[in-house]
Amino acid sequence: MSITSHDKRTITLDGLPEVGHTHARHRIHQQRKTGPKHRAVRPAAVESSPRHLVPHTWILTSRILRRWGRDPTSMAETLILPVALLTTLNVVLGDAISKVTGHSALYGTVPLVAMVAAMSGATVGGIGVMRERTDGLLSRLWVLPVHRASGLLSRLVADGLRIMMTTAVIMVTGLVLGLRFHQGILRTVAWFFVPTFFGVAFSAAVVTLALYSAKTIVVEASAIVWALLMFFSTGFVPLDQYPGWLQPAVRHQPMSYTIEAMRGLSLGGPVRTPLLAVLLWSAGIAAVCAIPMAIGYRRASMRG
Amino acid sequence: MTTTAAARPTTAAGARPTPSTIQQWWVLTVRVIMPTLRNGEVVTQVAASVMFTVGFYIPLKHMMGMFAQSMSSYAQYLMPLIALQAIAFAAVSAAFRSATDSVQGIDRRFKSMPIASMTPLGARMSASMYRCSLALAVSLACGYVIGFRFYGPVAHTVGFCLGVLLIGAAMSFVGDMIGVASANPEATTHMTMLPQLIFGLMSAGVQPAERFPKWIQGFVRNQPVSQFVYALRALAGDSTPAAGAVTWPVIGPALAWVVAYAAAGIPLAIWVSRRRR
């Protein structure tokens, strides 16, 4: 009896019927084999097995992506506003920067806007988590045989895919405006993936903030952080335009490193040092956020 | 409709309170303002105003400063834009707040209660004005630090402040309407920063309109942010005559843009209030 009710519940949950179904069957199977003695222990062991992590994460990721696809307003904003910003920056600053540096400003502005798009879009994920907490979706997922880590992982995977999409759009805009790749196919492909590193780390930070604070704070604080990183990065104006005491901060912040790595991969120049620094920054932020994020998500899921 | 019903005392004395609209407005205003003091929104509001000041001034001072040399300093040149960016951020975060309210269904609850239909909107607007005043105060303080000064008579200084607040009120009103109409906080979040950055950078607030490429100069000169900047710059004055004089040809277009902008919100407001009945 308990099995049928369990089955019914999983089927009503949009997007997850398949997993729930196989699980329920699996459970019946298990219980027949082992008898009622292990009823409480077995299912927990099954759903938390690493074997299920990838398929479960993927189902939840496609759920998030489908939801974005059905919200054309925010989708369009995610894609169109950065393109408008890139065009604006190119018109306003392009000329002056090209005169100062001797090569097109686009090698800095295109990565800059790719990062701005990645970071400004992260808010949508943060607000999404809060909405799902309020709606009770998180606690519904918590009582289902879904891998515990897949909820958070799917958020980050979906954000990574979103960042790739916005980067592709901005890359095409850059090519139209006059950006050219001089370093071969392999480095061009690498260029494309660089924004994802720090972008996903920033998403993790926003989700963590979302789990611990009010909605308005998430939106405003993350906007302030990315705007600060944008204004004080080597993609906005060249490094020597900043006062001497500020230059170390500008040079070593993650967004500047991302821009420098991407500049190296497209125009030419050092790649390894900035790329390593980006990875360190991203890993550092991810490490700081990991435990509070997991605890916060658990709490959000159990609160209902 | 609801007002008259609420204001009329009922036959059973004491059975039904007679709510005062002023008091309701005040309660609802405090309802929005109080959480900002508790949850740290005041901090983000102040941080945003500071961020706009340093973010435009420090990187662009040398590069753009040389194109604005007719004015006494680049700070004097940039101040109107900084104030406008700060006020826009304040106004849009207010819009986000109303989108959240409408999603949570609190609007519908208010409509089922003896509250005049305009009171919740009025309360949200006065709460937005609180945010806008804070943004204006902080950005003016930041402006003084980087070297901005008011050179005009007191009337012009008051005009500068009222002008910025008027623009803030118009933006809050339209933002609020968009927030309520869309009822989609996710979509509203993108509006907090990017559009105002794009319009701000593409205006005469950063560099003179003549510095832009020919094909876009017409847009740059006539778009609302540039016209606001011209008017505010004239009101702030300068030690040199380059700031422009306070005359109707300078102030008029800015006022027209504010009125046009606020008027754009009215059909939206009517649609929103009809939809929920």
Summarize the structure.
The complex is a heterodimer of chains A (304) and B (277). Chain A is mainly α and 304 residues long. In chain A, 81% of the residues lie in helices and 0% in strands.
Overview of this protein structure:
Chain A has 304 residues and is an all-alpha fold. Chain A has one domain (50-301). Chain A has helices at residues 2-12, 17-34, 42-47, 50-69, 72-101, 106-135, 137-142, 150-177, 184-212, 215-231, 247-252, 254-266, 272-303. In chain A, helix 6 runs parallel beside helix 9. Chain A is elongated and about 60 Å long. The two termini of chain A are 25 Å apart. The longest helix of chain B has 30 residues, at 74-103. Chain B has helices at 2-7, 21-38, 41-65, 74-103, 106-111, 119-146, 154-182, 185-189, 194-201, 214-222, 224-236, 248-275. Chain B has one domain. Chain B contains twelve helices and no strands. With 277 residues, chain B is mainly alpha-helical. Chain B is 74% helix and 0% strand. The radius of gyration of chain B is 21 Å and the shape is elongated. The model of chain B is unreliable at 1-6 (pLDDT under 50). Classes of the chains: A mainly alpha (304), B mainly alpha (277).
* Average pLDDT number of chain A: 83
> Span between N and C termini of chain B?
12 Å
Oligomer: heterodimer
Provide the gyration radius of chain A in Å. Answer: 22 Å
Largest sheet of chain A: none
Q: What's the tally of helices of chain B?
A: 12
The counted number of beta strands of chain A is 0
Helix content of chain A: over 70%
Largest sheet data of chain B: none
Count the domains of chain A.
1
Question: What overall form of chain B do the CA principal axes indicate?
Answer: elongated
